Amino acid sequence: MAEPLSAQRPVPLAESELYFLIARYLSEGWCRRAAQVLVQELEQCQLLRKRLDWEGNQHNRNHEEFVLSSKHVAPDHLLQICQRKKKKKEIPPSISRVASLFGAGRQSLLLTAKGDLI
């Protein structure tokens, strides 16, 4: 078996999250077969963000485990981000070093100026 792509080149966090959000979006819409193929590719190439244990060791996760650990990420999260960017309602993050698409609460890209989630 060939070496996974992630072993050849580290996958940037934003890229890994984007792949997950695309698969999540497709899985609840009209393109479920495309989502299945994408999920297979993500798992085979180990492109999903790894989990850290309490000792700091990294462990691969499958798509289902990733969905369960990201319950705050709705299937239409990517669509909501796109709609928000289209409206140009940019809210600066409360912690400048946090650049995750999965932000929850005050770190969410879906936070409005009033502090409410879209």
How is the secondary structure organized here?
Layout: H1 5-8, H2 13-27, H3 32-44, E1 51-52, E2 58-59, H4 63-69, H5 77-87
Antiparallel strand pairs: 1-2
Helix pairs in contact: 2-3
Task: Walk me through this protein's architecture.
- One of its GO terms (biological process) is regulation of cell shape.
- Pfam families: BRWD1_N (PF25437).
- With 118 residues, the chain is mainly alpha-helical.
- The protein has a domain at 13-86.
- 42% of the residues lie in helices and 3% in strands.
- The protein has 5 helices and 2 strands.
- It has helices spanning 5-8, 13-27, 32-44, 63-69, 77-87; strands at 51-52, 58-59.
- A two-stranded antiparallel ribbon has the order 1-2.
- A hairpin with a 5-residue loop joins β1 (51-52) and β2.
- The radius of gyration is 15 Å and the shape is globular.
- The mean pLDDT is 81.
Strand content: under 5%
Distance between the termini: 44 Å
What's the story with the biggest beta sheet? 2 strands, antiparallel
Query: Which structural class is indicated by helix and strand composition?
Result: mainly alpha
Shape: globular
Measured as a percent range, the helix fraction is: 40-55%
SS elements, strand count = 2
Rounded mean pLDDT score:
81
Number of helices: 5
Listing every helix as H and every strand as E from the N terminus to the C terminus, the arrangement reads HHHEEHH
Radius of gyration: 15 Å
Spatial order of the strands forming the largest sheet? 1-2
Low-confidence stretches: none
Domain BRWD/PHIP N-terminal: 4-85
Pfam families: BRWD1_N
GO biological process, one term: regulation of transcription by RNA polymerase II
Protein name: Bromodomain and WD repeat-containing protein 1-like
